[in-house]
Amino acid sequence: MQVRCFLCRKTFEFGPQRSEGRRIHAWAIMVCQSCRTANWDGIPPLSYPHLVEHLRSKGIEITLNRFGRITWPSS
């Protein structure tokens, strides 16, 4: 199944046979493996303002790490 990465907006394969990304359940989004790998140390909020807006709209607290990046949820 083709799904769209919430961060970069590119499509990727996601399903039982092939998975090029993952679901971030805590945030109710899908993220491609490229974005997850490139942002391993957190997500820069200025690069992804739509993520900040999404998290705020869901009432999810935004936690910044020591680099000023949004911390990925633990699960």
Structure commentary:
This protein starts with a strand and ends in an 18-residue tail after the last helix. The protein is globular and about 35 Å long. It contains 2 helices and 4 strands. It has helices spanning 33-38, 49-57; strands at residues 2-4, 11-13, 21-24, 29-32. The mean pLDDT is 94. Strands 1-2 form a two-stranded antiparallel ribbon. A two-stranded antiparallel ribbon has the order 3-4. With 75 residues, the protein is an alpha+beta fold. Helix content is 20%, strand content 19%.
Query: Between the first and last Cα atoms, what is the distance in angstroms?
Result: 23 Å
Strand order of the largest sheet: 1-2
Total DSSP helices: 2
Helix % is: 10-25%
Q: What's the helix-strand series?
A: EEEEHH
Which whole number gives the mean pLDDT?
Answer: 94
Question: What structural class do you assign from the helix and strand content?
Answer: alpha+beta
General shape: globular
Strand-residue proportion: 15-25%
Low-confidence stretches: none
Name the assembly state. single chain
Number of strands: 4
Q: The biggest beta sheet, please? A: 2 strands, antiparallel
Based on the model shown, name its key terms.
75 residues; alpha+beta; two-stranded antiparallel sheet; 2 helices; 20% helix; globular
